[in-house]
Structures are given as structure tokens and as C-alpha cells.
Amino acid sequence: EVSAIINKKFLILLNIETTHNVEITFSSQYGKIIDYQWFGDGYVAASFTNGVVSIISTHKDEIGNEVQSLVLFNSTIEAMVINESLGKMAVAAHGVIKIVNMNDWTEIKNEELTLPSSSGRITSLVWTEDGQILTCTTSNGGLYGFLMVIPGLCAGYINHI
């Protein structure tokens, strides 16, 4: 399947093999679509100008059904990224990155990250596949890397750890 945002109002899913197209629309209260990301076995997370993230299913029997919606900010979401290995989603706006637990769709308040006010608007978020490092870029040329998972360290010698 191929997918795209059309006119910042709806998401179109194109099945190349069957030429069957599906248009997925969202509540107008969410604002315009900023970004989206596929995850799992057919789910899409979409972020909006009104600070909302909507999770929808694209499974054949429930296509377009909203699974969850989260209001994370009072303004436009600037960037979003999902890390499936951690089961977390990072969402950014106004120099703040909020982390969401994808098991119960709750914000993990103690993992919230705040950039310096001089950093500018967050332009992108990228998470390493193993989830250890979350990187963001900003409109003022900033590049920030955050250690999100502390790797386990240990040493052993004979029968001592």
C-alpha cells in the first residue's frame, strides 16, 4: 500500500495491486494533518494543527475507525515519531517533547523533554531502532540527542559479577 496526505485534510490509502483507494477523514476539530506514521500491523498515528494525535486502524473490517485520540498540546504539533521496540511515541511542539506509552496511550510525564527557548521550532524527530537515542533537529540549526534507554552494563570475572 501507498499512503499520502491530501490537502492536509485526509489520508489516502492506495492499494497498487487492486487499485482500491480509501480516503480516511478525521474530525475537523483536530485541525489540519501535519504528519502520520504507520505502526504495528496496520495502524496509523496522525498528528494535527490543534495538538491532537489520532490513532486509526486500517484493518479491512475496521478501516478508518479511530482507536484512540490524544490531546497533547494546545497548538500545532511540530514532529512525531514512533518506536515500536519501546512501545512509545514522541510528540513535539513549542520546544517540548512528550513521550506516550503506546500500551495504554498515556503520557509519561517524567520522560518529558524541554529544549532551550533559543533552540527554535522542532523540525524533526528520529528514534534509533533500539530506542536508546531520540534525536531532534530545530529551525535554528540545533541537533539534540537524548539518551532514552540506559543500556545495561555489567562485568564478570570468574564467579563475581
TrEMBL record:
Protein name: WDR19 first beta-propeller domain-containing protein
Top-level taxonomic group: Eukaryota
Transmembrane region(s): none
Organism of origin: Euplotes crassus
Keywords: Repeat, WD repeat
Gene Ontology terms: cellular component: cilium; intraciliary transport particle A
Sequence ranges assigned to domain WDR19 first beta-propeller in this UniProt record: 2-141
GO process annotations (BP): cilium assembly; intraciliary retrograde transport
One Pfam family hit: Beta-prop_WDR19_1st
SUPFAM superfamilies linked: WD40 repeat-like
Gene3D superfamilies documented for this protein: YVTN repeat-like/Quinoprotein amine dehydrogenase (2.130.10.10)
Matching InterPro entries: Beta-prop_WDR19_1st, WD40/YVTN_repeat-like_dom_sf, WD40_repeat_dom_sf, WDR19/dyf-2
